[in-house]
Each structure stands twice: as C-alpha cells, then as structure tokens.
Amino acid sequence: MTTTIWTELAGLDFRVTTVDAAGVPTRSLQAGTGEPVIFLHGTSGHLEAFARNLGAHAHRYACHALDMLGHGYTGRPDFPYEIPRYRDHLLAYMDAAGIESAHIVGESLGGWVGARTAIDAPGRVASLQLLCAGGTVANPKIMERIRTTTRQAVTADDVDLTRRRLRLLMADPKDATEELVAVRHTIYHLPDFAANLDNLLCLQDMETRLRNILRPEDLAGITVPTLIVWGRDNPFGEVPEAAAMHEAVVGSELVLFDACGHWPQHEQAVRYNALSLAFLAKHPISG
C-alpha cells in the first residue's frame, strides 16, 4: 500500500491557513491542542517535510508546521533571507498566533533559525530540537551543491531534477516519494519562486554565511533544553559537526540515527516521534 501525505494525516483534525506575520502571508498547518510546537523546515523546503510527525504530536500538542519566509506558499519579500530575517518572521508568526512561548523543532535551516531564536529571545523558546541543523560550518563544496542542485531544479522544467534534489537528502531514495517530488516541483515552479531564488539562496554565499554562522560561543548562549538528532549518512554534515554542537550547547542531548540522511523526522519517523515526544514530556512549558 502506498502511504501519502493524506494517509499520514488521516483521522487528524487540522487546517491549512494563512497567517499575517507582520505583513508576510504565512502558510501554516495547525493541528492539536496543548503546548505549542512549531516545526521549521530546511532550505527550499516546505511544511510537508513534517507530514509523518504531525499526527503523533497533535495528540498532545498544538502543532504549527510553517512554510518559512520566502518558502513554499509563504510571502516572498524582496530582500536577502539572512538568519535574523527568519528569526523575526518566526517571532512575528508567534505574535500573530498568540503564542508567547513554544517548543521549536528545526530541521537543517530550520534548526539554524531555531537556535538563533533561542539565543536572542530565550523567553519565547521553551525547548529546542535541532534535526541535522545547519549554520555551524561553512563548507564550500556543500554550499555549492545546495546552490547548484536547487537552481537547476527551479530553472529547468524537468521533474527529474527536483527528484534528484530531494533524493540528495535521503539515505534511501524511496523516502523521496513521488508525492513529495510533485509537491516540491509545483512550488519550485510558482511564478515568483525563481525570481526570488537569489534571496532564498543567499546563505550559500560565503561572505553572507560567515556573517550569520553560529560559533561555539553563540551556541553556548542556548539555555533551553536542547535535543540534537543527526543522521550518520547526512550528506550535508558529518557526525563530528553534531558532536561539536552537542559539546557547545550545555546540557544538550545527542542522538545519532543509523541509515539516515538529512531528514531524520521523515526517514525514521516512528523512532523520531517517540524520541521527540519523550523529550517534550520532560520539558513542559509550565515547568
């Protein structure tokens, strides 16, 4: 039987809505009640990255999966998307949604944004999950791979280029389902997506990246409970990168997933969901 986003969300009361976040229309999938958990995807991604996680979490938490600034079906203001811009957009969304403090789950770029927010606005972040989080190194080869593969997939109307871009994230190519490929290909070919691509990819420019990078002394400023999850086959960062992050964030937990690439929450959803829910239960906002 083929599992789809619809079957992953089957039986779950949810809504997909647009929230005005300080003037930026922001697509959000919302489900469940309880303490808020906000899910943030990676570069050129979209909220469907968390389709395998929302059902499990919404039984206990108020889930908000976002299309981040300039991504998916969220607005695309015309300026480079550096990390403080993403942070401010996240906080504006929280203000608009009436969320004072939330658990932040960030994958790749989303982890970078979540970490920066926890450093700059610790009162707004109750706990932090960094899933193959970016932002602590500047590897020219990886940056070029992200920039080139994304640009090729966006500028050429060839669905196989989108398929290759998604498969790059996964240890097992089958996890880049044809449904996810279709969702991303459609987004990549929205009329204004290509026009905005330089803004979206600005962090793959070395000078810009170094201006935004999270150094050990920055990570040491994270004081909220933090869980780091990393795939041993992550194509965008090896295990020593995760170990250094774990060492810098005092009191953090590090869990490594075997046979896993850059999307642990998707590739090993059952294991990740159990791990995340146990972590969240240990660190309630009320506590």
Automatic annotation (TrEMBL):
Stored Gene3D superfamilies: alpha/beta hydrolase
Entry keyword annotation includes 4Fe-4S: no
Pfam families: Abhydrolase_6
InterPro entries in the cross-refs: AB_hydrolase_1, AB_hydrolase_fold, AB_hydrolase_sf
Listed GO CC annotations: membrane
Keyword terms: Hydrolase
Boundaries of every AB hydrolase-1 domain copy: 37-274
Official protein name in the record: 2-hydroxy-6-oxonona-2,4-dienedioate hydrolase
Organism: Streptosporangium saharense
